[in-house]
Model the fold of this input.
Amino acid sequence: MSSHGGVIAVGIDPRQLEPILSTASWLAYSTGSRLACCLVDVGRRTVRLNDDGTIASESLDPDEFDEAVQPFPDRIRSRIEEVLRGTPVEWSEHSLAGGAGAELARLAESEGASMIVVGAHEPGFRGGFREFLNGSVATYLSHVQERPVVVVPWRDVEGDWDTADTGSGDG
Done:
């Protein structure tokens, strides 16, 4: 499928990857768009954008003095490929660092995205506490974006996905 319909920016939450990507890929297929899949490490901040599309980031922890290129995790890339296998939807990966809402908004702007797709936060105390600490990506985007923001409801999915190395934020 050609990408004549533009781009849809997708905020990847590894705990909800399948429901988010299923919705985003259906929208992309329906509109002839491609997906710009974005994983944000909220424990780091962007230092510079490199010419090859990668970023250099540093830890927010003052005891860590590392500056590193932020790679897209192979484990997440494999899961995206698995979910999108058999679909004609094209996609790209973007590994970013900083506030999830701000970074997703920046990506949507730079890619000229027609919409943004994110997941809702996990229900219950744990999800509410995470949202209290990190803020709601969906709420943030709905206040700062002129493009539509699609929020995919939280769904219980099977799998023991460790998100410690992904820096994922809540929607």
Q: What stands out?
A: Residues 17-31 form the longest helix (15 residues). The beta strands are 6-11, 33-41, 44-49, 55-59, 67-69, 91-97, 115-119, 149-152. The chain has a mean pLDDT of 76.
